[in-house]
Amino acid sequence: MSLLDWFGRKKEASRRTLTEELTDFYREHRSLVFAYFHRVTGSREESEELTQETFYQAVKSLHRFEGKSSLKTWLLQIARNVYRNRVRTWVRDRKHRAEFEVLEGIADDSKSPEHLLHQSETREELSRLLLRLPEEYREVLVLKELKELSHADIAHILGKTPQTTKVLLYRAKQKLRDLYEREVLRHEEPL
Q1: Could you write out the three-class secondary structure of the chain?
Q2: What is the pLDDT of residue 97?
Q3: CATH for 113-188?
Q4: N or C: which end of the chain has fewer CB within 10 A?
Q5: Of the CATH numbers 1.10.287.1040, 1.10.1740.10, 1.10.10.10, 1.20.1290.10, which one belongs to the domain with range 3-93?
């Protein structure tokens, strides 16, 4: 069953317009797509623009969705393609400069200001290091650890086997750990 059929059945059942269904679809899945882009680009503005492009491409491709994967997997696959196309444009134009936006943490009032400062600094360092990883390492880390997708879903999105995504995840974690130890922990050691 195509996504268009699914929307059509929902429309018949609830007498809602396709526009209303698409609006609900966007609202329900926007945060997932936006969070993916925010993790791989580090920019709120870029993430918003790429999210809009992803949903535009999804609506254009409604007729191609056959239900062989979840909507979440299908959308993230489109998001990945949108991101790759954008990166090609950035490289070709040589105008893009990655700007990093500090991750917003959820403050816990029971923790000391020193702890919160250290926690915030650690998040900033990890996010900065994440942006320095090769693209495929960054993607697999974001999809597995932050989006909590299965290796089967990640494999579908990345066009790889689940075993390959497991290896990529292992290597990505190793690389991130090495960077963290070399650049963050080394600077924190007392002289």
Answers
A1: CCHHHHHHHHHHHHCCCHHHHHHHHHHHHHHHHHHHHHHHHCCHHHHHHHHHHHHHHHHHCHHHCCCCCCHHHHHHHHHHHHHHHHHHHHHHHCCCCCCCCCCCCCCCCCCCHHHHHHHHHHHHHHHHHHHHCCHHHHHHHHHHHHCCCCHHHHHHHHCCCHHHHHHHHHHHHHHHHHHHHHHHHHHHCCC
A2: 36
A3: 1.10.10.10
A4: C
A5: 1.10.1740.10
